[in-house]
């Protein structure tokens, strides 16, 4: 296999398998190279993209009640563990509230990227110098298993609408894996994007400025760069739609003509028919009964349900069943 594949063997394996499927499929987790991360930052500020600003407002409004639900009743030390902390913008609302309450806690951001954690730790040191920060470079479930050995409550954050990117079966298994190391005294705070007007949801994933289209198409640019591909972006389109029955946004890349694409790192040439698609992302939307059902299936119990005035988004506090 040519040398290009050694730059990212996981990506190479994924693309080799995904482009053999029917329909062809690539995972949304590969959106986030440097250019993709920058585009997503732009998406979060778009007028159509309601999830980020809605959850930010929700956390601001209910920060006292949310932190009270997460911390132990006594003043014993506890850990606030965040899975996929990113830039920490929303989390800092809760961190500041806990510091103002003089809560006895340590913040444990978890990510597989040490670079991302180093950047977050530096910004927290500058903005919140009294905060105890213990970054952990690990996969989510491995980090929780590691933390489970420590005494004290673990309050685990999984903010944003990231839970919606899992298929129903993968979502169930993911939540069960998160729950397994936790004790009945521990807590989870998970963000859920709620079902609402279909046109409003669809617009959030297909904005008028075309930033989301550029974000989706950037995946092909990444394959060209890292796997020696020759995707011609002039002959690809971004397409997305929302299915209100299944409650899911599906995003695709569409080949606008019959074409062949060669990937040097895979030593593979892939045929595309005119208007054939590559499925790149699912984003599921939820209802309160569905969240309660999902919690029960994972061995959890929904304890607090915080939502905004328009019921666009929910942050839900869950506890492992005894």
Automatic annotation (TrEMBL):
Tagged with keyword Glycosyltransferase: no
A GO BP entry: methylation
GO molecular function: methyltransferase activity
Coiled coil: none
Gene3D superfamilies for this protein: Vaccinia Virus protein VP39 (3.40.50.150)
InterPro entries, per the entry: EgtD, EgtD_Methyltrsf_superfamily, MeTrfase_dom, MeTrfase_EgtD-like, SAM-dependent_MTases_sf
Domain Histidine-specific methyltransferase SAM-dependent: 12-318
Keywords: Methyltransferase, Transferase
Protein name (Swiss-Prot/TrEMBL): Methyltransferase
